[in-house]
Design goal:
about 190 residues; mainly alpha; 10 helices
Length: about 190
């Protein structure tokens, strides 16, 4: 007969062995172990860690104490997280300020920190990235009718958080550089 495993409240298949070996009577020690394990692979926001502690039924006052201590020693830094996120996702995925702000909000970053982090990107930098994205996708749309190309390329930029005006302006310019006639699109993107 198989030995029956005793589970703690909040146990889940993704709980670490170290976390399970700690005494269930010391929630602060469990909370520290949970946070350290989660911070090992990837930086996390305070909200992400708070949610993980809540999910594992760590008492709120213990979670607050542990999270505050981690913040004091610099293991949790939402401002640095937001800046790194913006840098990485803008250069890596080509996301615009609007999409980056939305992602940071879902991770629980404070609005002021989001504004500061996305403020690193200026409009010229954002437009240059949009032009690079369109240049990479332009070849794949060759052979399609102009309006269909325009919709596909502008749609790709829209999904990455670029405004409609900027997306249409950038796509129109790229199509013109390829020799497409865009005279009847005069009011688009201006």
């Amino acid at each position: 007969m198989a030995a029956r495993r005793t589970e703690w409240p909040g146990d889940s298949p993704d709980s670490s062995r170290a976390e399970k070996e700690l005494s269930p009577k010391d929630p602060a020690e469990r909370a520290r172990a949970i946070c350290l394990r989660l911070l090992t692979g990837t930086p996390r926001t305070r909200k992400q860690l708070a949610d993980a502690l809540h999910k594992r039924e760590i008492p709120p006052e213990v979670a607050e104490e542990v999270l505050s201590r981690f913040e004091d020693v610099g293991l949790i830094n939402d401002a640095a997280f937001a800046e790194a996120w913006v840098e990485s996702r803008h250069h890596g995925r080509g996301l615009a300020r609007r999409a980056l702000a939305r992602e940071l909000r879902t991770k629980g970053v404070d609005s002021a920190l989001i504004d500061e982090a996305v403020g690193q990107l200026d409009s010229d930098q954002e437009e240059a990235t949009a032009r690079e994205l369109v240049a990479r996708k332009l070849r794949a749309t060759r052979g399609l009718e102009r309006d269909r190309r325009l919709r596909r390329l502008a749609g790709m930029l829209a999904r990455k958080g670029y405004s409609e005006g900027m997306a249409l302006r950038v796509v129109r310019r790229a199509l013109e550089e390829e020799g497409e006639d865009t005279a009847d699109l005069d009011d688009v993107g201006d």
